[in-house]
Amino acid sequence: MHTTKLSFKDQILEGIPNILPEPKPYDTSINHAPKRKAILSAEEEKLALRNALRYFDKKDHKTLLPEFKNELDTYGRIYMYRLRPDYKMYARPISEYPAKSTQAAAIMLMIQNNLDYAVAQHPHELITYGGNGGVFSNWAQYRLTMKYLAEMNDEQTLTMYSGHPMGLFPSHKEAPRVVVTNGMMIPNYSQPDDWEKFNALGVTQYGQMTAGSYMYIGPQGIVHGTTITVLNGFRKIKKEPKGNLFVTSGLGGMSGAQPKAGNIAGCITVCAEVNPKITQVRLDQGWIDEKITDLDQLVTRVEKAKADKETISIAYLGNIVDVWEKFDDANVHVDLGSDQTSLHNPWAGGYYPADISFEDANDMMANQPELFKEKVQETLRRHTNAINKHTSKGTYFFDYGNAFLLEASRAGADIMAENGIDFRYPSYVQDIMGPMCFDYGFGPFRWVCASGKPEDLIKTDAIACKVLEDIKKNSPEEIQQQMADNIQWIKGAQENKLVVGSQARILYADAEGRMKIAEAFNQAIKNGEIETVILGRDHHDVSGTDSPYRETSNIYDGSRFTADMSIQNVIGDSFRGATWVSIHNGGGVGWGEVINGGFGMVLDGTKEASKKLKQMLFWDVNNGISRRSWARNEGAVFAIKRAMEVEPNLKITLPNFVDDNLLDKV
User: Which of 250, 315, 485, 652 has the fewest CB atoms within 10 Å around its CB?
Assistant: First the structure.
C-alpha cells in the first residue's frame, strides 16, 4: 500500500497506481447516487467483475475482487472508490497541469471542473448532473485518462469510448486532441433497461450533454437559458414577471438554476424538491431565498409576495404534486408552470412518487423496482390532473424538455391533445426557444478562463458586451430582442454571482456574435491582456442536438426523429478545428430519445486559432439553421439567406412553400 503522499502532478502522471492506495471510507457527508437496481444475471455479474479487474495488474485481483463485488451488490455499480484521488478536485489554473500539450491541459482542467464538489451532483460516483450524467463510470478510467492527457503531444488523439480511454492514436496538429462518444448503441438496444444493464457491465455510460463531454460549467449555463425562457414565457402571455408566479420543481444540477433565473427575471418562483440535502445546498449557495416545509405556510407566503409584488424564490421541501393540488384548493393563481425533475431517468431517482418519504422511495427504487414504477406513474397521473385544473384557470404550462409530457403519456395521464397524436401542452422549444432563438442561430455559447483568474473573466465579459453592442447597432429587427436580452444578461453577470467552479460565462449568440467574440478574445490573448480561453457550448443548441421532444420539437416536416444533423455537426466540427468533440446518446431527455454533440476549442492568441474559430463556429451554427430552414421554419429561412449573403462559399438548398389551399383540394 502507498505510504508516502504524492504531489498532485505525480498522482496525475502515476495513472493507475502500481501499489494500491488504502481503501477509502464511504463519505456520508456528500450527495451520493441512489442505488441502482439489480439487473445482471449471475454470469453477467462475473462479467462485470472481469471487466472491472482488467484495469489492474493480476497481483491485485484477489484484493480487489471482493471489494468490487461488494460495490456491485451494494450500489448496483462498480465505482472503484479506493481509486479516488487524495487531492482536491477543482479546475486548477492551466499552468498547474503536467502536460506536453496546452490543449490537453485545457481538457484536464475541464474534466476536473465537472467533478468539483461544488459542481458535481454525485462527485464520488463521477456523476455531474441529471442523476446519471457521468464523466466516467469508475475512478480507474479517470486516472488513466488524466495520465494519457498528461503524456499526449499535439500529434496524437485520445479516443474515449463511453468513459473508457481506448488510447492515444497518431494524428496531426489540426485534428481534435480528444474524440468522445457516450452511450452509442445499436438502435434496438436503447431502452432504459439496456442502459442499466450495459452500464452495470461497465461497457457504456450516460454522458448527459455536458457531463461526459467535459463542458459543464455548473448551474450558470442553465440559469441563462432559464432566464431567457422565463422572460419570453411572460412575454408570450403578455404579462410582466413582477408580482406574478412561476411554479416548477427540481433543485438538482440543472433544475437548481430555476429559482435563480426567476429572481433575475423578476418573478415569484416556487420550486419543489424532495431531496433535503440538495435543497439545503441551494439555500446555502443563495440560489433560493427561502425554504418552506408546510403547505399552508407556503400559500400564505406566496399570497403576500403577490400582494407586495416581490421578486423572490421559494423552495418547498416536498413533492411538487402536493403544491399543484394545494394551490388549486386554495385558488392561488399560477401564471407560468413547468417541471424540471429528471424524468429522462424516471425509475432511478429522476422523479419521486408522492405520499412516500424520500428515504422509503430510495429503498423501494432499489428493492421493489416494479412497485416504484407503479407509484411514479400514479404520481404522474395526479401531477397531470392538477396541472390541467390550473391551465383551465389560465395558467400557461410548458414542458421544460425533461420528458414530462412523454413519461406522463406513457403513464396513461390525461396529457394528449384532442387529435390523440400531439401533447396537450407544448415543449418550451416549440413555443419559445425554437422560433425565438434556435431558428435565428442563437444558442448557448460559453467560455472558460483557463488562468482561473476572476479578473480575466471580468475582462472577457467587457469584451463580449462591447462586441454585442457593436453588432446590435446594425442588426435586423428580427433579432433585436435577442441581442438586447443578452447584453442585459452580460452586464448583470458579475453582480448575480453566477460562477460555480471554473471562471466561466455563458450567453446566447448567433454565428456572427460567436465568431466576433471569439476573435476578440484571441486578439486580447495575443496582446497579453488575458490568458488562454476555452470555448464551448451546451449541446442544447441550434445544431448539436436531434431531440424530437425538445431541441427539434419545432421541426414539422417529419424529420424530427432523424439524427443526421447532430452526427453531421460533430463530424464537421472535428475537421474544422475543434480541440475536442463529443457525441452522446440520451442527454437531457432520456436514453434512446436523443442524439447530441458538442465541442471544446482552445484559444491561444495564434493565427491558427483565429482560422479555426472562424471556420468551425460558422459551420457549428449554420449546419442547424440550414436544417431548420429546409423544414420550412421561416425564421431559419431568413437567417440562412442572411448567412449566404455574408459568406459567398455558403450555398444552401432552400425550400419552396406549398399553398395549403392547394393541398386541401387533394
Answer: 652
Amino acid of residue 494: Q
Phi, psi of 545 (to 5 degrees): -130, 130
Report the DSSP pairing between strands 268-273 and 245-249.
Answer: parallel
How far apart are the C-alpha atoms of 139 and 83, rounded to whole Å?
6
* Residues 438, 296: Cα–Cα separation, whole Å: 41
Tens digits of per-residue pLDDT, 420-474? 988 999 988 898 899 999 999 999 999 999 999 999 999 999 999 999 999 999 9
Contacting residues for 438 by C-beta, under 8 A, at least 6 apart: 429, 541, 542, 551, 554, 624, 628
Angle value at C-alpha 536, between 107 and 451, nearest 5 degrees: 55
* DSSP-assigned states of every residue in 51-93: HHHTTS-GGGHHHHHHHHHHHHHHHSS---GGG--SS--S---
Band of residue 82 on the pLDDT scale cut at 50, 70, 90? very high
Q: What is the per-residue pLDDT for 4? A: 63
Q: Dump pLDDT digits (tens) for 190-247.
A: 998 999 999 999 999 999 999 999 999 987 888 888 998 999 999 999 999 999 999 9
Residue 154: other Cβ atoms inside 10 A: 16
Q: What is the identity of the amino acid at 254? A: M
Q: How far is CA 361 from the centre of its chain?
A: 25
What is the 8-class DSSP label of residue 335?
A: S
Q: Is 609 helix (H, G, I), strand (E, B) or coil?
A: helix
Residue 645 is inside which H or E element, if any?
helix 634-646
Closest CA to 302 of 258, 226, 247, 252: 247
CA dihedral 196, 200, 203, 205 (to 10 degrees): 50
DSSP H helical ranges for 76-191: 102-115, 139-151
Query: pTM for this structure?
Result: 0.90
State the average pLDDT for the chain: 95
Q: Annotate 385-421 with b (16+ C-beta within 10 A) or e (fewer).
A: bbbbebeeeebbbbbbbbbbbbbbbebebebeeeeee
* Cα dihedral 10/15/19/24 (nearest 10): 90
Task: State the distance between the two ends of the chain, measured CA to CA, in whole angstroms.
Answer: 79
68, exposed or middle or buried, with CB in 10 Å at 0-12, 13-18, 19+? Answer: buried
Continuous segment of H or E residues that includes residue 621:
helix 607-630
Q: Which residue has the higher pLDDT, 402 or 641?
A: 641
